[in-house]
Fold this protein.
Amino acid sequence: MNKMKKGDHKLIQALNRSKILNEIRTNGPISRIDLAKKNNISPSTVAAAVQELIKEGYVSEVGTGSSSGGRKPILLKFNPDNHYLISVVITNSYMNVARMNLEAGILAKKSYPISGLQGDAVTDYLLVVLDEWIGQLQDMAWCVGISITVPGIVGNVQGVVHYNTKLRMSNVPLKQIVSERYGMKTWLENDMNSIVLAERRFGAYAYPNLLYISIGDGLGSGILIHDHILRGKHGGAGEFGHTSVNRSGIRCECGNVGCLDGYISWIAVYSRIITAITSGRPTIIHELSEGDISKIVPSVYKEALALGDKLARDLNEEIAEHLGAGIVNMINMFNPEALILGGEMALGNPELLAKVGQYIDRHAMPILRDGMAFGLASLGEEDKLIGAASVLLHDLFGFSLIEA
């Protein structure tokens, strides 16, 4: 008989620990004996793992349960506030940093503009920001790690930002840089992947086959297939904005032509609004922005849309057509149980949701669209911070073979 290797034993211990912790988190208060029965783990293994989790502050005993005879079992509950994590969201225009509990609740947060920063300057500024946060923390022993999300092509295993066109980041080993500087476990993930995890764990879409599509400054998607993130070789799967819809279209920063990003991202829509205004086309957007083009933001566009502005409605119609075509392709390729629209251009834009839904009904394969849930993102303005937290918590509770 082959002996179990030391590494195999540690792997099983880690797996059992994660299963036990997640069971207490989701179904607590719960007794040790029920933990053993539900997870098919021996009582002695459960007892050892629970003792360790209590010592580390993740779990505590809370009263007793009922018993048909004999001693009443002691119940265990999860303590989400005894530990915390640091979430970092890097976008193309700002950084958000938050201290969060182990249920992705925000305890403190701050936003930092990064417009104009590119390349190494982004990394340098991130370290300045983290120095500020970590310098203020008095209880670092209770910090389980730092979780960072970035748009673009991200290799989560190696912890490398392979490619971000707008921030000019290329092959940046961000995970290593941060973990070595602070001596802490660090996670790095693509922002869209993090949000699809968050919607699955903390949002309104508890589906193992889930598509999240965001429309904001750019376009992106997170794809969950049988509860696994679809990544591709370099972590580049889901670059929805760089799928081509017009081979004679505009040249994109990525090198392609006619990318969807160039037609329906906020940057593209903003450019068309400015062109319309300068050409003299009447629109209430000019009044809502007080004649200051720098004040034309997605909320102003959506307000004009709600007021029936012709320009805004025409643009929304075009966006719906392009977006609908792209989404139908995604449905036909991935057959999701649910599809979520998020980002500034989608949230608070029920007309867009309705028009895209109509396009899906007309053009997607019936067997793939029928029964598919379709709606707006459910996590609100803090979705990216909750997403960053979800990456770390997915490993903490779900167990991963990827070493953080």
